[in-house]
Amino acid sequence: MNLNKAFVAGRLTADPQLRTTPSGQSVLSFSLATNRNWTDKAGARQEAVEYHNIVAWGKQAEIGSQFLSKGSLVLVEGRLQTRSWQDKQGGQRKTTEIICERMQFGPRSSGGGSGFRSSTQPGFKSSESEPSSKDVSVEEIPVIDIDSEIKEDIKPEDLPF
Question: What is the CATH number assigned to the segment(s) 1-106?
Answer without folding.
Answer: 2.40.50.140
